[in-house]
Amino acid sequence: MLTRSDVTRLLDEWGQGDPDALDQLMPAVFDEVRGLARRALAREAPGHTLQPTALVHEVYLRLSGRRSVQWKNRDQFFGFLADLMRRILVDHARRRHATKRGSGVPDLPLDDFLPLTHVRDPDLVALDDALGRLARTDPRKCRIVELHFFVGLSQDEIADVLGVSRNTIVREMRKAKIWLRRHLDGEEADG
Amino acid sequence: MTPARWQEIDELLGRALDHTAADRPRFLDGSCGDDRGLRRELERLLALDERRDFLDESVFSVHAADPDVGRRIGPYETRALLGRGGMGAVYLAVRQDDYTQQVALKLIKRGMDSDEILRRFAAERQILADLDHPNVAHLLDGGTTDDGRPFLVMEYVEGEPLDRYCDDRALSVRRRLELFLDVCSAVELAHRNLVVHRDLKPGNILVGKADGIPKLLDFGVAKLLEPGPAGVATALGRRPMTLHYASPEQVRGQAVTTASDVYSLGVVLYQLLTGRLPNDLGDPDTAEDEKVRRITEQDPRRPSTMARARADAPRQLARRLAGDLDAIVLKALRKEPGRRYGSVEQLAEDLRRHLAGRPVTARAGTLGYRAGKFARRHRRGLTAAVLALIALASMVLLRGQALDQRERAVREHERVSRVTDFLSGVMDTFDPDQTPGELTVLAILDRNREEIAASLADEPRLQADLLDRLGAVYRKLGFFEQARDVLEESLSVSRRHVAGDEPEVALRLNNLGVLCYDHGDEEKAVDYLRQAIEMRRRLGQEGPESVRSLNNLATLLMHRGELAEAEELYRRGVDVRIRSYGLEHPYLATSLRSLGNLYWVAGDFERAEPLLRRALEIRRAAYGPGHTEVAAALDKLASVLDAVGRGDEAEAMWNEALAVRRTKLGRRHVLVARTQKNLAEYLLGQGEPASAAPLLEAALATFYREKPAGDWERAEAEGLLGAYWARLGHAARAGPCLETAYATLAQARGEQSIYSRKALRRLRELAGEP
């Protein structure tokens, strides 16, 4: 189990460019995010206020550069989790990508710099850009995709969190993926 | 795009999605009106709805904190999660005593170790142990963890799923089919071992990043067939994880046979060719029953229709798929197992037929289809035939000019009109009114032949000449019988009408000799080549003109084991070329290399080395370092150096040769495989089986693809595989490889050839004989 000082130390090392540090943190962060999401969905313990664990909290503050953060409702809380995961993964992917390029070695041995997910680095980076565009024209679609993709919520759960019908989510998600694919194909930008 | 426009499109898109695919065109007609831009945009967006990509799964679907990562399991240490299945997971692991060796380790989940699952795990292990194929990920090891869970260790393939590999590299249809055929050959082997895979899908077929070789993985739900009633091997169906690739009988839970794998391969092929899946199962939330209904009842669209409907597909794609590939894919995807291809082999054979331009069995064998096929296959040939005719005609005219002035004045008119008659006779062939039946290259050439026989009977020299050229065209197009006929006719015309010896006749004899050799008639070949050499001698042409025949005969004799005479002939070739061209000419290098090769075959390495070295030097100077001729010289010289114990030097040369051949010829060329085989053999001899394995594998993959079963070089590689297994102590695997190799080599190269003797020696070593 990572202690708070472990987290701080690893984040510092990571900030100084040591990719291993994040690799050590991530399994724990992933687990915490999953657990937080599950508990928030189950509304466990009446009156329980939404609180991230110290680990998640710290990582988020470091990544977002904010001093503190507060949530008024579940919607916001899930937004926070989605944002956290998106930042971690995309940031990691960008660095990995840059390291590979910069080192001039096309394929680093896997155990030097493990991927955090099965999603490929270039896909994550491109998705981040595409989500940025989608958020400008249709923030709700962007949020739906984030909750599904980065927090792993099912369509029912997303409907529950956003307080709309499941059918709406199904349809919006389908359209959102279409728009994203269109952007990912690298064709003319909107706006 | 303005926000208003975006709003409008988004709204229409949503309504279009609510319509079925069939109703959408009508919906779009109604809502887009004359706005073609809007319609195009919507069609493009709708096409994107069907794409399956990384957006469909969350980042958690594979990765989550896993207590089995970073654990010691036997002599291995797990490093990362590669994938997860119902009963276990696969990890990337390294050996603790050798961190450079990465493996894939499959481990049963805690609490999942029921009898049934343990049985299945043991079955997978047995199946993998029996499947020894370059396109199957090898089983390396297996064991039990401290807490009693069994694990398997397999070759780790650092690669990408087949479909993504193809799409990322925008591979051509032909390349995709070639990769797919590799996969078929692996599945064929499984079926021969009575194993059905039952879960074939791109995710289980990884293409190596480094070597581009596809490997079949995950026999986790594979099943040994049991002979059932009526001799049909079946296995009880089990609901697969991946519905998209599952056959109708599988989703119904009925008996599963090899035909089910044929179906899944059909789905994979469909996807590779169109970028889409054949069955539209709706979005992920469609009810299970509905999905099953669609798989069992709904007919897939033709691949070409699908390609046409895809707004983002290249325009030529639909045309490329229409016809053969539509028919092949749909035959593999028939709902009734009995109406599919009878075996994966048949499916693969039809694809190979398609690639070779031959008629495929999936299409009704109508005459029109076959004839059209023939013309298409020979489209290049057709052009070649026409070009050859024009060349013939101009040759005749030029010869007319070369005649002396007087004769020319007399005969020019006659000659020109003769050529004109000849050509117009041939051109009639292209006139459909004049030619009943199908227009084919063979018909055109046969017509040529008749024309030559009929209209040039009183001009024997010209007639013989044209027949000889025609023979070359036949030969180039692969019509050996006809080629031989006209060449022999040409020869007899010359003999009848031309008094005595002629350089042209000697050349004709040489060509006939080569043709007979190609065609497997060695006796005749030797006879013709000897006649050619003899005639050159009588003509006093023992210079460079004669070398080609000398070398041809020598090569033939060498392959028959008549080394002494072959040596004598090659030597004459070398002498002549030194006298004619001097010491630096590439022609001399060819003769030196031939002679050096002969000494190598004879086991006389001391003589071989300086000759091959000189050939290499000449070629390096003449062509520069990165030339395939240089690689050929390096490859042979390396073999000699290895034989005399200078392995270090040899290894460097093989590596250089390999690099050149790979760059110039592509990764999968037979000559690349030859060098890979040689280098692998060396490394194995050095006690480095791990370094030899990937080279040997790549070589075998190429030979299996490019060479027929009785081929000596393929047999050589198989023998080497046997040696590899013997070295690793797998006598049971080594034996069959070595036996096949010896039998084939003894047949192809004679029992006394060095290749056969080597295979025999390995067999004896394996049996523990001295």
Topology of helices and strands:
The complex is a heterodimer of chains A (191) and B (770).
Chain A: H1 4-15, H2 19-42, H3 54-64, H4 74-103, H5 121-137, H6 139-149, H7 155-162, H8 166-184
Helix pairs in contact in A: 1-2, 1-3, 2-4, 3-4, 4-5, 4-6, 5-6, 5-8, 6-8, 7-8
Chain B: H1 3-18, H2 24-32, H3 36-49, E1 72-73, E2 76-84, E3 88-95, E4 98-108, H4 115-130, E5 139-144, E6 150-155, E7 159-161, H5 162-168, H6 173-192, E8 195-196, E9 205-208, E10 214-216, E11 223-224, E12 226-227, E13 233-234, H7 248-251, H8 258-274, H9 288-297, H10 303-309, H11 315-321, H12 324-332, H13 344-356, H14 367-377, H15 379-402, H16 405-427, H17 441-455, H18 460-476, H19 480-497, H20 503-518, H21 522-538, H22 544-559, H23 563-581, H24 586-602, H25 605-623, H26 628-643, H27 647-665, H28 670-685, H29 689-706, H30 712-727, H31 731-749, H32 754-767
Antiparallel strand pairs in B: 1-2, 2-3, 3-4, 4-6, 5-6, 7-9, 8-11, 9-10, 12-13
Helix pairs in contact in B: 1-3, 6-8, 6-13, 8-12, 10-11, 12-13, 14-15, 15-16, 15-18, 16-17, 17-18, 18-19, 19-20, 20-21, 20-22, 21-22, 22-23, 23-24, 24-25, 25-26, 26-27, 27-28, 28-29, 28-30, 29-30, 30-31, 30-32, 31-32
3D architecture notes:
The complex is a heterodimer of chains A (about 190) and B (about 775). By secondary structure, chain A is an all-alpha fold. Chain A folds into two domains: about 1-100, Rna Polymerase Sigma Factor, Chain: A, CATH 1.10.1740; about 105-190, Arc Repressor Mutant, subunit A (Orthogonal Bundle). Helices cover about 70% and strands about 0% of the residues of chain A. In chain A, helix 3 (about 55-65) packs across helix 4 (about 75-105), helix 5 packs antiparallel against helix 6 and helix 6 (about 140-150) crosses helix 8. The longest helix of chain A has 30 residues, at about 75-105. In chain B, about 60% of the residues lie in helices and about 10% in strands. Chain B has 32 helices and 13 strands. In chain B, helix 8 packs antiparallel against helix 12 (about 325-330) and helix 24 (about 585-600) packs antiparallel against helix 25 (about 605-625). Chain B is globular and about 90 Å long. In chain B, about 40% of the residues are buried. The chains are: A mainly alpha (about 190), B alpha+beta (about 775). The interface of A and B includes residues 28, 107, 123, 150 and 174 of A.
